[in-house]
Amino acid sequence: MSHGLVDRYSDLDSIIHRLDPRTKIVLTLALVLAIVSTPPTSWPAFGLYAALLAVLVGLSRLPVGYVLKRSLVAEPFVLLAALFIPFVKPGQPVVSLDIWMW
After folding, report:
1. What does the alpha-carbon distance between residue 11 and residue 101 come to, in Å, rounded to a whole number?
2. In three state form, how does the secondary structure of the chain look?
3. Which of 1, 16, 32, 57, CA to CA, is 20 to 30 A from 10?
4. pLDDT above 70: percentage of residues in the chain
């Protein structure tokens, strides 16, 4: 079965493509959980995550440009989440407004 309309690289033959889909889902969730639970100040860990993703892209034989272009779909959501980070961190308030009962 060809999935060229959905993904032109779905029929590649690589180590990653031959994995059982359930295995890929479990490993993806484990990677996401590891990244989310890493403290924001642990830059070496994030470097290792980036290296791991680069190795996985290399093993899958996908073109790097294609992977980067597809990852741009999630970029607005990441930037939107990053926009609110200054407002949820503890610290001194920049502005304090007294609005009626709040």
Report:
1. 61
2. CCCCCCCCCCCCCCHHHHCCHHHHHHHHHHHHHHHHHCCCCCHHHHHHHHHHHHHHHHHHCCCHHHHHHHHCCCHHHHHHHHHCHHHHCCCCCCCCCCCCCC
3. 32
4. 91
